[in-house]
Amino acid sequence: MILHIATFRWKDGVTEADVTELTESLMRMAAGIPELRSYAAGPNLHLRPAGADYGVAAIVDDAAGLDAYLDHPAHQAVYEQSLGRMIAERAAVQLPISQGSFE
Question: Taking 80 as the threshold, does the pLDDT of residue 100 lie above it?
């Protein structure tokens, strides 16, 4: 299995309403992509200093599942409708995980 983590820093002017709308759109999108085994998205809680403004964590079975998720038309639509205009910086990493790692 693969854990895909993406973090974002927002451009100036991104509002709380923008972030709420994005989160709702991402969660609706995730519900329609069968390759996603687990999905979380939301603003950083800022429990520690520094860090990104927002994060997404997705678990898929394999590289083909990751490609299916990232290339899915619903994922592309969320990017085009809101996420793309909000991003100042993006970072991503994919980590191998074993089934049950987070149980």
Answer: no
